[in-house]
């Protein structure tokens, strides 16, 4: 229950970021001269939508492997290496999920360095401030999720038997991961596609 309340507070945090984004966008669009491109039009053209879409697909795939791991924990399958992902144990699923989450974060870092090389930083203008704040905070949440996966994995390796507490831990981490995934899908749609 505590995790659900905490995720609700996180939802309010990201809701505030979305509100700031839409409010700032409406103000700057109203200030633009008629017929002239807005700040959003000129700056969003520098985003690599294809790269971000691939990175998004990686994060969505990690949500699938996370759920497979949570289901395996529920069934008491701690480990079961198989070429069939549906037969994986909790450990295999969480290791793959943590790896995919790390790849997603590395992709965000790569995108940041590409934008920095083009001269776009958090202080460039309101657009880039909101872009880097929203994606940066989300990236920190993904990194926190990766650490949580390694924590759950470490606990599973330190005990001889799989316990109910480990199953609950696996589910709690999966709730958090799915939340982070849904937030990114919303951010991706707003930042990369909304014109």
Automatic annotation (TrEMBL):
Keyword Transmembrane helix recorded: yes
Ranges for domain Heme-copper oxidase subunit III family profile: 1-195
GO BP of this protein: aerobic electron transport chain
PANTHER family in alphabetical order: CYTOCHROME BO(3) UBIQUINOL OXIDASE SUBUNIT 3, CYTOCHROME C OXIDASE SUBUNIT III
Enzyme Commission numbers on file: 7.1.1.9
Family: Belongs to the cytochrome c oxidase subunit 3 family.
InterPro entries (UniProt xref): Cyt_c/ubiquinol_Oxase_su3, Cyt_c_oxidase-like_su3, Cyt_c_oxidase_su3-like_sf, Cyt_c_oxidase_su3_a-hlx
Record keywords, A-Z: Cell membrane, Membrane, Translocase, Transmembrane, Transmembrane helix
An annotated GO cellular component: plasma membrane
Membrane topology designation: Multi-pass membrane protein
Presence of the UniProt keyword Metal-binding in the record: no
Residues spanning the membrane: 6-24, 93-110, 130-154, 175-194
Catalytic activity, reaction form: 4 Fe(II)-[cytochrome c] + O2 + 8 H(+)(in) = 4 Fe(III)-[cytochrome c] + 2 H2O + 4 H(+)(out)
Protein name: cytochrome-c oxidase
One MF term in the entry's GO annotations: cytochrome-c oxidase activity
One Pfam family cited in the UniProt record for this chain: COX3
Subcellular localization(s) per the UniProt record: Cell membrane
